[in-house]
Amino acid sequence: MNKTMLKRHLSIANLPTPIQKLEADVPNLEISVKRDDLTEFVGSGNKIRKLEYLLYDAKERGAETVCTCGGIQSNHCRATAFAARRLGMKPVLFLRGVEPEKGEGNLFLDNLLEAEIHWITPEQYKERDNLMNALKLTQAEPEKFYVIPEGGSNAIGSLGYLRCVEEMIQQTNLNDFDAIFCPVGSGGTYAGLLAGLNHFNITCDLIGINVTLTPAEDFKSHVREILKEYENEEFIPEKIPDEAIRIIDGYTGEAYAVPTENGLSWIKSLMLKTGLLLDPVYTAKAFDGMIQESKKEGYKKVLFLHSGGGFGTFAYSEKLI
After folding, report:
1. How far apart are CA 145 and CA 302, in angstroms?
2. Minimal CA–CA distance to 108: which of 74, 85, 136, 139?
3. Which CATH architecture fits 47-152?
4. Which of 88, 126, 281, 299 has the fewest CB atoms within 10 Å, i.e. is most exposed?
5. What is the full DSSP assignment across 293-320?
C-alpha cells in the first residue's frame, strides 16, 4: 500500500470511534456497531473521514473556497460547511430542491455556518458537477475554488474509509464477523471499506444497502472506478473481483430522503431500547436491510457502520412522533 498517501490528511474527526455490541432484540443475530455517528459533533458522521483527505488536498492547492452538493438535508454538505469554516475557508453548497420556509436539521446548521447556498431543481442536479465547475470558472481566482463531488465520493475522499479498516482491526477481529454492512448513497464509503478489507486480508462479506433510487449497478460502476485508481496508485495490491462488490437494492422505499415504515420503526425501537439514534434517510434503511439480508444469508454475527445523520432526523419529527 502507498503509505505516504494515507498520511496526507488533516485531523478533524475524533478518532478512533468505538465499536459497541448492540443489545437489540433481534433473534439469532449478534450485532456490533461502529459508531461513526461519534466522529465529531457539528461535523459528525462518515463524511468527516473523507473530508480529512479532501480538505488536505484543498489546502495543499491553496484553496480558499470549497464547493459541494447534496439534498436539502445533506449530511455531507453540513459536514463540509463545518470543516471549511473550521479551516478558515468559505463553504458553497448546491442543494437539490426548493428552499423551505423553515430551515431545520442540517439546513439550519448550513445557514448558521453562513454557507453560500444555490438552490437547484432535481433536473439541474443531474448536471451538478458541470454547475459547480461553471461557478468555479466565474471566480476571480478559480484555482482557489475547490470542488468536492457528491458525498465526497472519489478516490481521495474514500481513503478515509480505507484507513478506517486499519482502525477497526486495532479494535476487534473483523474475521469473526459474517458480514459488515453500511449504507450506500454515493459509493465512496463502500469503496474505501472494500479496498481496506482487501488489503488486510479480511474475509467477511461487505454488503452495502442502497438507500437511493439509483440502481445498485450504477454504484458498483462508481466503486470500480475508485478501485481502479487505487490499483494504479498501489493503494491495494491487486484487482478486486467484481463479485466482491455487493450493493443491494430493495430497501429505499418511495425515494431517497423519504422514510420507510420499517426504517421509522427501527428508529423508535432502537432509541427506546438502546439509546442509539438512527436517521431516516441512510442508517434506518440500511439497518432494516441488514436485518433482512442477515436472515436470508443465515448470518449470526454482523458489524454495522453507523454513518451518522442525527441532525437530519430532526427534520422528520412529525413522522416519528
Report:
1. 41
2. 74
3. 3-Layer(aba) Sandwich (3.40)
4. 88
5. HHHHHT-SEEEEEE---HHHHGGGHHHH
Taken as a whole, the chain contains a residue count of 321
pLDDT tens readout for residues 175-223: 999 999 999 999 999 999 999 999 899 999 999 999 999 999 999 999 9
CA distance 162 to 268: 32
Residue of 314, 212, 218, 194 lying closest to 257 (CA atoms):
212
The pLDDT, as a whole number, for residue 27 is 92
| Contacts for 133 with CB less than 8 Å, ≥ 6 apart | 147
pLDDT averaged over every residue in the chain: 95
DSSP string covering 88-111: T-EEEEEEES---SS--HHHHHHH
State residue 135's pLDDT score. Answer: 98
Handedness of CA 156, 289, 224, 305 (dihedral sign): positive
Q: Whose CA is closest to 198, among 245, 154, 249?
A: 245
Q: Grid coordinates representing 97?
A: 430542491
Maximum C-alpha span of the chain: 60
Delimit the domains of the chain by residue range: 3-46+153-320, 47-152
| CATH number belonging to the domain at 3-46+153-320, selected among 3.30.1020.10, 3.40.50.1100, 3.30.465.10, 3.40.50.1820 | 3.40.50.1100
In this structure, what is the dihedral angle of CA atoms 251, 216, 34, 264, given to the nearest 10 degrees?
-20
Tell me the per-residue pLDDT of 17-32, one tens digit each, with 9 for 90 and over: 999 999 988 999 999 9
Question: 275: phi > 0 → left, psi -120 to 50 → alpha, else beta; which?
Answer: left
Identify the CA nearest to 303 among candidates 210, 178, 169. 178
Query: Which residues are catalytic, by number?
Result: 74
